[in-house]
């Protein structure tokens, strides 16, 4: 029997199931490995039609997505867009792999804004400084080394909180601030992302929150999810997943919002998005 699902706040997993059957993390990692690291010779684009009560045109039309059409009918927006797995962009991928870590780099104001603390992502907290001082190494000469250390730490440091996931899904709260997250030691994908944002900003790497939708009909996965994008010089915004500790985001992730934090994404609560409906118009299986 198929059941209606809303979000992706499963412990240690990227995707919430679309059926009652459970899945273990090892199987999920195998799926990701098969999709993310298979050799490819060309970008394979996927065209989606997605409907929801709330979405951001600027996010829908940001790399690697291209917005084709956006309409509003009553209280529902419907967008058509194309996207692709970013690891397939071999030219831009080399930029990420070679980018020199420059913690005091003078970014344009529009990018430097994502280095600033917010009430939810306070990178000036003493606890954040202590972690950053211990975590990051002077020998880290590449931005990707710093990003990878942050991803590994956050994905293992926080335990998954089913109760908070239910509260978020019911619209009873938004997301917890970094200080509270460090005190509790647990959270959902948005809390993993908040902590990662704070660590990257402390390290001098601009970082923003993304809220979107994962759609994998062949694996019967779908639901809302939060992740992060780090700014890499010459590349732009590089998507990573703090909850699960990986980068090179796949084509089954649809970006719907971004901002300095959850509040800056201009989402009231998660039900502000629902119901979300996704359809693949072109591009085959996802």
In short:
The chain is of the alpha+beta class. The chain has helices at residues 25-36, 57-60, 90-98, 109-112, 126-135, 143-157, 162-169, 178-184, 189-202, and strands spanning 46-52, 66-73, 76-83, 159-160, 186-187, 207-216, 221-232, 236-241, 246-247, 253-259, 277-282.
Report what the structure shows.
By secondary structure, the chain is α+β, with helices and mostly antiparallel strands. It has helices spanning 25-36, 57-60, 90-98, 109-112, 126-135, 143-157, 162-169, 178-184, 189-202, and strands at 46-52, 66-73, 76-83, 159-160, 186-187, 207-216, 221-232, 236-241, 246-247, 253-259, 277-282. The longest helix has 15 residues, at 143-157. The chain is globular. The two termini are 22 Å apart.
Number of helices: 9
Globular, elongated, flat, extended or rod-shaped: what is the shape? globular
Q: Sheet bearing the most strands, described?
A: 5 strands, antiparallel
Low-confidence parts: 1-41
Which structural category fits the helices and strands? alpha+beta
**Gyration radius from CA atoms, angstroms:** 18 Å
Proportion in β-strands: 15-25%
Helices and strands, in N-to-C order?
HEHEEHHHHEHHEHEEEEEE
Number of strands: 11
Strand order of the largest sheet: 9-8-7-6-10
Query: Helical percent range?
Result: 25-40%
């Amino acid at each position: 029997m198929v059941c209606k699902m809303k979000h992706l706040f499963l412990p240690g997993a990227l995707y919430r199931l679309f059926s009652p059957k459970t899945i273990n993390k090892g199987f999920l990692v195998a799926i990701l490995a098969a999709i993310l690291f298979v050799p490819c010779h060309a970008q394979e684009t996927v065209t989606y039609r997605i409907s929801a009560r709330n979405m951001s045109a600027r996010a829908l039309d940001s790399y690697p997505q291209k917005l084709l059409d956006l309409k509003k009918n009553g209280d529902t927006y419907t967008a058509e867009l194309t996207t692709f797995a970013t690891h397939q962009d071999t030219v831009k991928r080399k930029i990420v792999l070679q980018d020199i870590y420059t913690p005091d780099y003078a970014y344009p104001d529009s990018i430097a804004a994502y280095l600033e603390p917010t009430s939810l992502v306070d990178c000036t907290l003493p606890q954040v400084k202590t972690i950053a001082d211990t975590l990051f190494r002077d020998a880290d000469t590449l931005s990707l080394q710093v990003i990878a250390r942050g991803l590994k730490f956050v994905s293992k440091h926080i335990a998954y909180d089913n109760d908070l996931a239910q509260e978020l899904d019911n619209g009873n709260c938004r997301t917890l601030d970094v200080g509270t997250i460090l005190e509790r030691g647990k959270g959902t994908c948005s809390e993993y992302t908040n902590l990662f944002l704070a660590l990257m900003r402390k390290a001098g790497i601009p970082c923003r929150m993304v809220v979107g939708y994962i759609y994998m009909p062949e694996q019967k996965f779908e639901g809302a999810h939060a992740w992060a994008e780090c700014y890499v010089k010459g590349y732009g915004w590089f998507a990573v997943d703090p909850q699960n500790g990986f980068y090179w985001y796949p084509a089954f992730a649809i970006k719907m919002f971004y901002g300095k934090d959850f509040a800056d994404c201009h989402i009231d609560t998660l039900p502000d998005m629902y119901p979300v409906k996704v359809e693949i118009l072109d591009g085959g299986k996802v």
